[in-house]
Amino acid sequence: MWHKEFKFHILFLIITILIVLTAGALTFAYLEGWSFIDSLHFVVMLATTIGYGDLVPTSELSKVLTMIYTISIIPFVLYLFSLFAKMETAQLYRKLHAVERVQKEHEEDILKTEKKLEEQRRQLKEQEEENERQKKILKEQEKEINVQEKELEVQEKELEVVENVMLAGKK
After folding, report:
1. DSSP states of the chain as a string?
2. pLDDT of 171 over the 70 cut
3. 109-149: per-residue pLDDT in tens?
4. 57-98: per-residue pLDDT in tens?
């Protein structure tokens, strides 16, 4: 909405400035006897405060009109330039806000990812601890199996001795 308002104000000012420039050029062409282009050049230099000094009013009336004209056209031109600047500034702020919004989204994504990573690290630590517990249990079971295997070997040897004694007794 405000963008259309800016465009309307700018268009209105441009038309107003063109009318005032044309009127000034026609006035100075008549009073000084300059061509329309020379007069337009003169009033544009006055309006933009450049003032090359290549054309100067010669009559008292022209000098007074130059002062009045300058005082009346410069605010219009400055206001037009300020509207251009305001419009550009507004566009920059819109772009800046869009970038900030995207940056905020990215920061939120980073935070979510960091939380997920931390959770995965916690789970990994728990799994490593569980693996260590399982390894301890496995070592204990291996020791128990070794003990049982030794006991089994002893029992097998005892059984062999008993079988040998029984076989010797039957003979």
Report:
1. -HHHHHHHHHHHHHHHHHHHHHHHHHHHHHHH---HHHHHHHHHHHHTT---SSS---SHHHHHHHHHHHHHHHHHHHHHHHHHHHHHHHHHHHHHHHHHHHHHHHHHHHHHHHHHHHHHHHHHHHHHHHHHHHHHHHHHHHHHHHHHHHHHHHHHHHHHHHHHHHHHHH-
2. no
3. 999 999 999 999 999 999 999 999 999 999 999 999 999 99
4. 999 999 999 999 999 999 989 988 888 888 889 889 999 999
